[in-house]
Amino acid sequence: MKNVTLSIDPETHHNARIIAAQRGVSLSGLVRDYLQSLPKAQNPRKEAMQNAFAAMDEVEQFSASDRLDRDALYER
């Protein structure tokens, strides 16, 4: 688990401690619960890779049987 240090004004600290006590958790637990409730952040690099692989899946696969023979290739 990672530790986070933050600075808040005394009034916010006091109010947060009261809310935490009412909920039966520590102030750290209150902050942790809030942060865990946030939607998961998207990784743009991972998303771009997933999109690239999805696009590759949509492209028709090339097969050796699709190749032109030598005469057809040089035919003009």
Question: What does this 3D model show about the protein?
Answer:
The protein has one domain (10-74). The protein is 59% helix and 0% strand. The chain has 4 helices and no strands. It has helices at 10-23, 27-37, 44-58, 70-74. The protein is rod-shaped. The model has no long low-confidence stretch (mean pLDDT 84).
Alpha-carbon distance between the two ends: 69 Å
Largest sheet: none
Rg value:
29 Å
The rough form would be described as rod-shaped
Provide a count of the helices: 4
Annotation keywords:
76 residues; mainly alpha; 4 helices; 59% helix
Secondary structure: elements and pairs:
Blueprint: H1 10-23, H2 27-37, H3 44-58, H4 70-74
Short recap of the structure:
59% of the residues lie in helices and 0% in strands. The chain is mainly alpha-helical and 76 residues long.
